[in-house]
Write a structure and sequence with these properties.
Keywords: NAD, Nucleotide-binding, Oxidoreductase
Organism: Cognatishimia activa
GO molecular function: glutamate dehydrogenase (NAD+) activity; nucleotide binding
Bound molecules: nicotinamide-adenine-dinucleotide
CATH architecture of the domain at 194-359: 3-Layer(aba) Sandwich
Structural class: alpha/beta
CATH class of the domain at 194-359: Alpha Beta
Strand content: 15-25%
Protein name: Glutamate dehydrogenase
Number of strands: 12
Number of helices: 16
CATH topology of the domain at 194-359: Rossmann fold
Pfam families: ELFV_dehydrog, ELFV_dehydrog_N
């Protein structure tokens, strides 16, 4: 989305980066080294479809190789361009540093509207794109590891992994060449929902500290908070579903491509999602009010706004009309640099993208480790853990029998305590821990340093310091 006088997405990321480095004491050479995108590869390739050759344009950009492999999703959308891919690659560098995933930043994209092609055609296109990238080591377990992004998912990742494996038949680590794969093709439990789950964990951590809640002018806990979400795709759907089902939040607005739904009471997120799958949009959904101008619902009265679709949706044209006191950037770059300034001046609290949607890359990191270690998490220790828990349960049972009516174990305790952690429980625990620790590192700066006026600056400071330390350690 472009608005007159509005910086592009790439310029927005640069402006935000500049605000942060302005507060730091980096040598100018190092600052420049961190800012610039190392390389962007553009490929044009043809695929024979429906009797004629169609030419596609794709990109893979590598922002920083201070750690390798570099990591970042592959996006399928008509608006993909070099600037966008480079901005997204830069965000990946900072995101990985912030959540301590040991990767540099990268991103890829293909200019395509995936809805215009059937599954077989998409497979042909994806395999050809993957071939072009893999032959230049832009897909490689030790150098460059893609993941899903807008317009792509498990299916595309499985094709990419298979294409790489066909081209590298003796690479024992071939499966680690891409993350976000289906479970039966080397994926990990909990990856599909990881980004949305991360958004939920981020909000839970935000509401744990009354100082943060105060800054947004909110009160209490997540329970009952009115939420508007834009984009009911992978990220938005899971975030909205978990927040409603597990935290008692109310989903009062859902914005999609063809308009929005609003409701005074919480909507059934699964029912809306099923409706979209069946009808291609939200229009006609019976249990909420349809609003044709979907973007206007970004300005609705609510407690939390979750833009989870695309970049630039909160910009100079609507920033001053946004009523939500708290915005969590589930999408990458939904708030432009100009809008960011307007919102900051209004006192809106923004949980920034590089942190808010880092759940995806965090669980991708776990998947990559799983692929390299060739073993499912929890396989070795789960039963042993259960056996140890059984010992405690047996002792408690003895006590229970001895004390009779005076004391007994709480209902369900036995069952809950006995269950050893499987892969999904471990992934969730690792993700929760990562999201908490990264948030706390931003929170500390936000509350303790006068110059750190908002969470975005805090996030940039924490991550740029880590990237700088990594370059320094290399002697640069
Ligand atoms: P997706 O393709 O699964 O979903 C995007 C959703 O947004 C779709 O439902 C689409 O219909 C909707 N949408 C598109 N244009 C819209 C518009 N103009 N107005 C309203 N809705 C619109 O994509 P996703 O994977 O959920 O990614 C969404 C955002 O999250 C992107 O910015 C992406 O970069 C970011 N992100 C995704 C992941 C991930 O793991 N998938 C990780 C980190 C960040």
């Amino acid at each position: 989305m472009s608005v007159k006088n509005e910086p592009s997405f790439r310029e927005s990321v640069d402006l935000m980066f500049n605000r942060a480095v302005g507060l730091m004491d980096l040598p100018p050479g190092l600052e420049q080294k961190i800012r610039v995108c190392n390389a962007t590869y553009t490929v044009r390739f043809g695929v024979r479809l429906r009797g004629s050759i169609h030419t596609f344009t794709g990109y893979r950009s590598v922002h920083s190789e201070h750690m390798e492999p570099v990591k970042g999703g592959i996006r399928y959308a008509l608006g993909v361009n070099q600037d966008e891919v480079e901005a997204l690659a830069a965000l990946m560098t900072y995101k990985c540093a912030l959540v301590e995933a040991p990767f540099g930043g990268s991103k890829g994209g293909l200019c395509i509207d995936p809805r215009q092609y059937d599954e077989h055609e998409l497979e042909q296109i994806t395999r050809r794109f993957a071939y072009e990238l893999a032959k230049r080591d832009l897909i490689d377990p030790s150098q460059n590891v893609p993941a899903p992004d807008m317009g792509t998912g498990e299916r595309e990742m499985a094709w990419i992994a298979d294409q790489y494996a066909r081209m590298n038949t003796t690479d024992i680590n071939a499966r680690a060449c891409v993350t976000g794969k289906p479970l039966n093709a080397g994926g990990i439990s909990g990856r599909v929902e990881a980004t949305g789950r991360g958004v939920q964990y981020a909000l839970q951590e935000f509401f744990r500290d009354i100082r943060d809640v105060d800054k947004a002018g909110l009160k209490g806990k997540l329970d009952g908070k009115r939420i508007v979400v834009q984009g009911l795709g992978n990220v938005g759907y899971h975030a909205a579903k978990f927040l409603a089902e597990e935290d008692g939040a109310q989903i009062v607005g859902i914005i999609e491509r063809d308009g929005a739904l609003v409701s005074d009471t919480s909507m059934d997120v699964d029912a809306v999602r099923n409706w979209i799958m069946e009808h291609g949009g939200v229009k006609g959904y019976p249990d909420a009010t349809y609003v044709e101008n979907g973007a206007s619902v970004l300005e609705a009265d609510c407690d939390i706004l979750i833009p989870a679709a695309l970049e630039g949706v909160i910009n100079l044209t609507n920033a001053d009309k946004i009523k939500a006191p708290l915005i969590i950037e589930a999408a990458n770059g939904p708030v432009t640099a100009g809008a960011d300034e307007i919102l900051r001046n209004k006192g809106t609290v923004i949980i920034p993208d590089m942190y808010a949607n880092a759940g995806g890359v965090t669980v991708s990191y776990f998947e990559w480790v799983k692929n390299l270690s060739h073993i499912r998490f929890g396989r070795m220790q789960r039963r042993q853990e259960e056996a140890r828990h059984q010992l405690v349960i047996d002792e408690l049972q003895r006590l229970d029998d001895y004390l009779g009516d005076a004391w007994s174990m709480s209902p369900n305790f036995k069952q809950k305590y006995l269950k050893g952690a499987g892969e999904l429980e471990l992934v969730r625990s690792g993700l929760d821990d990562t999201m908490r620790i990264a948030y706390q590192s931003m929170r500390e700066r936000w509350h303790e340093e006068e110059k750190v006026t908002d969470l975005r600056i805090a996030a940039y400071l924490v991550s740029i310091e880590k990237v700088a330390a990594s370059y320094r350690a290399k002697g640069l």
